[in-house]
Amino acid sequence: LEEFYGPDLAEKKYAILSHCWGVEKQGEKEVSYKEMKKLLFIGEGKRKEIRGRTGYKKIVDTCKQAQKDDLKWAWIDTCCIDKTSSSELSEAINSMYQWYENATSCYVYLHDTAGNSWTNRRDSPTIPKWFTRGWTLQELVAPKVVHFFDQRWEPIGDRTQLADILSEITRIPQHILKNEPDFERPGVAQIMSWAADRTTTREEDRAYSLLGLLGVHMPLLYGEGKNAFRRLQLEIIRTSNPSTL
């Protein structure tokens, strides 16, 4: 693990992962920042346990794909954010949209799909879990290049190729998914409509996951519950041009 800031970060070409966090009760365990930092210095038994996790395999597969794409660096939220530090977590969430936007390539890992069956809505009425989560909305919109992979890390297609079905599932216009120029930035109401059916594990994250999409910043107060959305609305009113609401 290495840390980069400001100009140093701007010069780096890196891949970034978009995925659903594993559910520990279902045996899907992620690897934390502190575990990754200590990986080379802990006992063999613990190291073997960590390397056997589904979350560790995601890290390895992301790095393998980055190598194929000739990228030296990769960023993965599970092991690149120290969630025990409230200040680092707040900085990461307020910077997240920019980090996805500046990535050379974003890899969307659909852990519950095999092949591209989900792209045919007639044959597959259910959609991958990834499309129902709050944080993945900005991870779909922000990057310049987005590649989709199934549970075996087989490529499905990129965001431009899949724009038709992605627009049908997410209600995001195709011109946004295709990064077509000369279109106005979507308004607050439109962005809110994209997020209406999405869920988050923490209630506050329903608001925090929209910060980058709405172009606002605010401190995080986990434990505030529904008040996070009230603060978000106030921040939108304070910073927005009324004509964009």
Automatic annotation (TrEMBL):
Pfam families on file: HET
Spans through the membrane: none
Residue span(s) of domain Heterokaryon incompatibility: 14-118
Protein's name according to its UniProt entry: Heterokaryon incompatibility domain-containing protein
Organism: Pisolithus tinctorius Marx 270
Organism classification: Eukaryota, Fungi, Dikarya, Basidiomycota, Agaricomycotina
